[in-house]
Structures are given as structure tokens and as C-alpha cells.
From TrEMBL:
Provenance organism: Arenimonas fontis
Name listed for the protein in its UniProt record: ABC transporter ATP-binding protein
One cellular component term from this protein's GO annotations in UniProt: transmembrane transporter complex
Transmembrane portions of the chain: none
Higher taxonomy: Bacteria, Pseudomonadati, Pseudomonadota, Gammaproteobacteria, Lysobacterales
Keywords: ATP-binding, Nucleotide-binding, Transport
Length: 238
């Protein structure tokens, strides 16, 4: 990262309550956070502590009960339905634990689904080449390993040139070797395009990958720490 910090997200007092009355679940209890351009941030915390809820709110998949999220200076809560769809579609790349590829489409066609609607997409083959899968373009998801499927999902997210990639347990279903390749593909996107990365994980060792580590507990940020330097994915242990 260079010295000049440009905020991508500014989060103020975000809460999220599911349900009401006695059965209300307070998933987020007041989150304040700033995320800068080009940063790699790792979110750690026990199951149910609110990590996915925050990611979904940042990505416009869910709305905060209270508080504000500014993306490049604009409050996403003020966007109308059309603008919110455009935001979700163009600015944000999502990577989930279980790839969410369309089984009846090839790797290339899965990426094309996105490039046909994005405003300034990459060529689908370029996106697949970035994750080392140009020679698997005509394979269907069932013909690919879990790690390869996840890399197709990353290519699909990358192909629209998103400002931010929100990754919810991207290696949760993978073993060490394939998980490392997936993380390398994400870190490569950060290095080449300056894509800001937010990675949710249960794996404490993955914290070493990021510039900052955010520890969640009970719907709150308990700690934010900075790493002196990023550790390459190949040096992580599962
Ligand atoms: N749609 C929903 N309706 C009701 N409760 C929900 C909903 N989504 C999440 N929750 C609750 O909100 C809390 C936070 O969930 P969240 O998925 O954000 O946690 P997490 O830290 O990502 O957990 P995990 O690591 O297991 O994915 C949990 O108690 C969860 O049960």
C-alpha cells in the first residue's frame, strides 16, 4: 500500500437486528470501520459473531437496521433499488464458500454471465487466465475440483473489475494446497488491480495474509490490529 489512504468504505454505527420482540437477534451491535483502497483485511471471530452479516450489508445484499455505510463517499442506504442493483453488480465482487457456479454452464460461460452485463468487463478468457484456468474453460463445474471451481468463481467476480471483493470463507471447503492457490488468486488480483479485499475466515493463521485483522465477537469489533507485513499464502498453515 502507498502512503496516501483513500477510503472505500466508511461504516458508522451499523446495527442489524433480525426479527423483533423476544426473538430478536442482534447480529451487529454498532460497527465503526474504515476500509481503504487496496487494503487486504481479514475478519476473524466465532460462529454467529456477525462477520457474514457485515459483508452482506457492505455488498448491498442486506440492509442495516441503523447506521450508515458510505462507499466512495456515497451512502448506500440512500440508493434507490436500481442504483443499489448497479452498485452490487458493478462495484462488488462476491466470493462465497460454496462457489455458486451454474452446473449446466462451462467455466467460460459462468464467467460470461457476468461479463455480458458489466459496464467495462475483461475478456472471460483473460479472467480465467488470471486464476490459471484458461485450459479448463470448456469444463463444466462437475469436471473441476473444489479449488478449481472456487477459482472460476473468483474469475467470475474479477471479470467485472470490481473495486472490492467480499470473500466469505473462500477456502472453507478446501484443503491446504487448493486453499493456498485460491488465496494466491485473490492476492494476485489485489497486487495487479488494487482490488480491495475483505476476507472472512475461521482460520486464525489466515490473519497473517492481510494488512489488518478485525476480530469480531458478539456483533461487535473487539480488536483491530495491523500486521507489520503480509505473509504469502504459501506460508500459511490450515
Ligand atoms: N436472515 C437471518 N435471520 C435471522 N437471524 C440471522 C439471519 N442471518 C444471520 N442471523 C443471525 O445473526 C447472527 C450473526 O450471523 P452471521 O452469519 O453474521 O455470523 P458469522 O460470524 O458470519 O458466523 P459464521 O462464522 O458461522 O458464518 C447469528 O446469530 C445468526 O443466527
Amino acid at each position: 500500500m502507498n502512503g496516501q489512504r483513500v477510503p472505500v468504505f466508511e461504516v458508522r454505527g451499523v446495527t442489524r437486528v433480525y426479527g423483533d420482540g423476544e426473538s430478536a437477534v442482534h447480529a451487529l451491535r454498532g460497527i465503526d470501520l474504515r476500509l481503504d483502497e487496496g487494503e487486504v483485511v481479514v475478519l476473524l471471530g466465532p460462529s454467529g459473531s456477525g462477520k457474514s452479516t457485515l459483508l452482506n450489508i457492505l455488498g448491498g445484499l442486506d440492509a442495516a437496521t441503523a447506521g450508515s455505510v458510505r462507499f466512495q463517499g456515497t451512502g448506500i442506504e440512500s440508493l434507490d433499488a436500481r442504483a443499489l442493483t448497479r452498485y452490487r453488480r458493478d462495484a462488488i465482487g462476491f466470493v462465497f464458500q460454496f462457489y455458486n457456479l451454474i452446473p449446466s454452464l462451462t467455466a467460460r460461460e459462468n464467467v460470461e454471465l457476468v461479463t455480458t452485463i458489466a459496464p467495462s468487463p475483461m475478456d472471460p478468457m483473460q479472467a480465467l487466465a488470471l486464476v490459471g484456468l484458461e485450459n479448463r474453460a470448456n469444463h463444466f463445474p462437475a469436471q473441476l475440483s473444489g479449488g478449481e471451481q472456487q477459482r472460476v468463481a473468483i474469475a467470475r467476480a474479477l471479470a467485472k473489475r470490481p473495486k472490492v471483493m467480499l470473500c466469505d470463507e473462500p477456502t472453507g471447503a478446501l484443503d491446504l494446497k487448493t486453499g493456498v492457490r485460491v488465496l494466491e488468486a485473490l492476492m494476485d488480483a489485489n497486487a495487479r488491480f488494487g482490488t480491495t479485499l475483505m476476507i472472512v475466515t475461521h482460520n486464525a493463521d489466515m490473519a497473517r495474509l492481510g494488512d489488518r485483522v478485525i476480530r469480531f465477537a458478539d456483533g461487535l469489533i473487539r480488536e483491530i490490529s495491523e500486521n507489520p507485513q503480509r505473509v504469502p499464502a504459501s506460508e500459511l498453515r490450515w
